[in-house]
Amino acid sequence: MIEGIQLRRYQRDDVDAVYEAVIASRAELARWMPWCHADYSRGDAVWWVESRPAAWERNEEWSHLIVDGQGRLLGSCGIHRLDLRNGVGELGYWVRTSATGQGVATAATVQLCEWAFREQGLHRIEILAAVENHASQRVAVKAGGVREGILRQRLSLHGHRYDCTLDTILKPIH
What are the structural domains, with CATH classification, of the chain? Predict the structure, then answer.
């Protein structure tokens, strides 16, 4: 278990850390993350990091970096496909290979959901994962997600259609 997992917004000087984490983890990320491809470049990382503030301001995506207590980049998570009228968003995450299997994605998911419920007024957060992506499904369940079903051919990755699981985390009612 990695201690001190925190979420923070992207900053301009994160480009090199993001690029390094993606390159070090490309073999594992590429299967499930269409943006992670054989030609992924530092330019891709620059575009991503620099586009985060505007995406946030337009309520298109609330992207966060996942860091440890020493500030080392462990991965990224965010909420996208926002439907603010209905208080719904879709949560996604990735963790660098050297930090997988240590509860990083689960801790980040819990923190991000708590933040989105408290600060952004969401009521329902959806997590989609290809039925073959067992690691992401475990994260959803460990973070408190409830399986609602299988969505047929919902995901398109690298030119192929995949069925995916739909897990949801609802805002606690007090």
Answer: 6-123 (3.40.630.30)
